[in-house]
Amino acid sequence: MVEGVQQGQAGPAKGYDVFHTDCPARDVVDHVTSRWGVWVLISLRSNDLRFYELRDGIRGISEKMLSQTLRALVQDGLVWREVEPTTPPQVTYGLTEFGRDIGEPLTELFDRITRRLPPAPTPGPAGPLPQAVRRPTAAPKP
């Protein structure tokens, strides 16, 4: 391989230049890999959920951020949204075929990460991270 030469893309994405800032595929990647996009996709991997179930299941997300994230994922075609005509309206979300296809490697990544971590600590006061999770420090220079 010659250094400094970028290889062309293979497969169906040939029409997209993902390294260009105006590429629509780049927007989808940004939404999927956003702080909350990953958690929404992982949360919906096995069940369709209502808004409040997503909000309660994804700890730390505000209603505003959940709404924005869901709106972007629906617009990208990764998540579907169904509104039941009740008072108040009940809104259910689920993964589209595209969303399941994208969510599968995310789920695998999540599972790989959790398999490599030490056993979950028992609830208690926050303390330092276990040694296996700490960032490695550089070796002292002689």
What does this structure look like?
By secondary structure, the chain is of the alpha+beta class. The radius of gyration is 20 Å and the shape is globular. The relative contact order is 0.11. Residues 1-11 have low confidence and may be disordered. 39% of the residues lie in helices and 10% in strands. The protein has helices at 24-32, 37-43, 51-57, 63-75, 97-116; strands spanning 49-50, 79-84, 90-95. Strand 2 (79-84) and strand 3 form a beta hairpin. The chain is built from 5 helices and 3 strands, in the order ααβααββα.
Describe the structure in brief.
Helix content is about 40%, strand content about 10%. It is built from five helices and three strands; from the N terminus they run H-H-E-H-H-E-E-H. The longest helix has 20 residues, at about 95-115.
H/E series: HHEHHEEH
Strand content is 5-15%
Strand count, sense and barrel status of the largest sheet are: 3 strands, antiparallel
Mean pLDDT: 82
Number of strands: 3
Question: What sort of overall outline do the alpha carbons produce when their principal axes are compared?
Answer: globular
| Uncertain spans | 1-11
Number of discrete helical segments:
5
The CA-CA distance between the termini, in Å, is 37 Å
The residue fraction in helices comes out at 25-40%
Spatial extent as radius of gyration: 20 Å
Question: Strand order of the main beta sheet, please?
Answer: 1-3-2
Q: Give me the secondary-structure category.
A: alpha+beta
